[in-house]
Amino acid sequence: MMDAIARLYLGRLLGSPRGRAFMLHFMVQAEEGDELGVFDTLLSRVDDPELNKLVRVHRDDETRHAAMLRECLQRNGVDPEPVPPELHVVARIGHHAGGTGESFVDGRATVMQMYLLLQVIEERGVRQFPKIANAMRPFDPESAAVIDRITRDEERHVKYAKAISRRYAPDDATLERELARFRAAERRAFEENGRALLAFSLSRGLDATRGLERLAWRLLISRNAPASFRPAAENGA
User: Fold this and answer.
1) How would you write 80-114 as a 3-class SS string?
2) Distance of alpha carbon 156 from its chain centroid, rounded?
3) Torsion of CA 219, 191, 62, 136, to 10 degrees
4) Which DSSP category does 234 fall into?
5) Is residue 208 part of a domain?
């Protein structure tokens, strides 16, 4: 049910310049913030020159993606709404995986676990970025094309993550067990983040809805949103 709501609302969100600005800024923060700390930790812990090279390529790709998205944001011409800490997905994944997000950047997680984290994040990007690009295309085809290019890089990153996590796994059974745990944690984190993002966007008026449509979205999303992001009723909505 919530997936269908999200797909419908995404078009309304990206139909607004403020909504596009927020989504692009959200994607910049994800590329720059959620993953870069993991790469820095990997580079500090692993002596293998081959792995270090792959980590640097992956990290530099994410930095380049953030710059590409920031150019889209600047072209959009609207100052974006700040992304609240509650919408940072790595911390949520860490929580649902039985720890905290900090364990991925403070040396407690293993190399295998860090790359399983990157794998499930990249897999989600491969599935979700085309949906964002398609919803963006009628309003900003240039930004949609940028997201398409980023998606192709993310497909390559998934292959990196699978190969490296397998290389550093103690055995196949451990790898499969941990991958299942991380996928379950990522799925719960994504669902929570999705509900929070929709409610946050609606509560800040970032979408293109008005009048009775806006009221209907508020009623629909507030039933599924975390309490801290539930949109308050508007007078005359």
Assistant:
1) CCCCCHHHCHHHHHHHHCCCCHHHHCCCCCCHHHH
2) 17
3) -40
4) -
5) no
Total number of domains in the chain: 1
- Taken in order 7, 11, 12, 17, the sign of the CA dihedral is positive
Amino acid making up residue 87: L
Please give the chain's pLDDT, 237 residues, in tens: 456 777 788 888 999 999 999 999 999 988 876 666 778 778 777 778 888 888 888 889 999 999 999 999 999 999 998 888 888 887 788 778 776 445 555 556 788 988 898 899 999 999 999 999 999 999 999 999 999 999 999 999 999 899 999 999 999 999 999 999 999 999 998 888 888 888 888 888 898 777 777 777 777 766 655 444 444 444 333
Residue 171 φ/ψ, nearest 5 degrees:
-165, 165
**Any idea what the CATH number is for the domain that residue 27 is in?**
1.20.1260.10
Say if CB 38 and CB 117 are below 8 A apart: yes
What pTM value is reported for the model? 0.84
- Structural domain including 100 reads 11-78+90-173
Sequence-separated (6 or more) residues with CB below 8 Å from residue 134: 144
150, part of any domain: yes
Position 141 in a domain: yes
Classify the C-alpha dihedral 62-144-15-194 as positive or negative: negative
Is 178 within a domain?
no
